[in-house]
Specification:
This protein is an all-alpha fold. Helix content is 67%, strand content 0%.
């Protein structure tokens, strides 16, 4: 929580290595926490110019734009160049869903067309599948949304558990853990999840 002190160190790091994107990301995050939004945006955008694939810079910049109610700009930043990015942090998905809640029905329909066009170009892209499923769900197309979300889950599981076959993914649970609150079920869940052949629910 010592953001002012951290700011000093990040500025020193940038002075030593002006091309270090991670230092810009750290300074931008500090300034964001200090509510110095204009400075944070400038630093984060510089960081993105240095490394456009840095998801943390993109995440903090999207969060900043959302705070300023610049929802369309924030969502555009999420979509820009994302087909080149194969792995999106779960927090990025949460930012997307939060942003989309700020769009009215007409804006969501326009966005859905854009996302579906992108998905035709990049049919295996997990982030676009997730976004398209969310939009379809909110437009009332629950069957298509469910199909895409199942595909997203299979892709995510395959990335995390490549040794588990698709048939095993689709087979449903082999066992359930049932317990009352404060009965150590979370501890048991975490303990069992250490085994490489156990796939826990997301």
């Amino acid at each position: 929580g010592q953001h002012s002190r951290a700011e000093v160190h990040f500025r020193q790091a940038i002075k030593s290595r002006p091309d270090a994107a991670w230092s810009h990301q750290g300074l931008g995050e500090c300034l964001l926490e200090l509510n110095r939004l204009d400075e944070a945006e400038q630093i984060l955008r510089t960081g993105m110019q240095l490394d456009s694939t840095n998801l943390w810079i993109r995440y903090h910049l999207v969060h900043l734009l959302k705070i300023q109610h610049r929802h369309e700009e924030a969502l555009g930043l999420l979509l820009k160049n994302n087909p080149a990015i194969s792995n999106i942090d779960i927090r990025m998905y949460q930012e997307v869903e939060s942003l989309l809640n700020g769009f009215d029905t007409t804006e969501q329909q326009i966005l859905q067309v854009q996302v579906e066009d992108l998905l035709r170009q990049y049919p295996e892209h997990v982030f676009l599948q997730h976004l398209c499923a969310w939009l379809q769900m909110h437009s009332g197309d629950y069957d298509e949304s469910a199909k895409k979300m199942r595909r997203v889950l299979r892709e995510v599981w395959h990335q995390d558990f490549p040794h588990i076959s698709p048939a095993q993914h689709a087979s449903g649970p082999d066992f359930l853990l049932i317990g009352q609150p404060k009965a150590a079920t979370t501890a048991l869940y975490n303990f069992i999840g250490r085994h490489p052949n156990v796939v826990l629910p997301l």
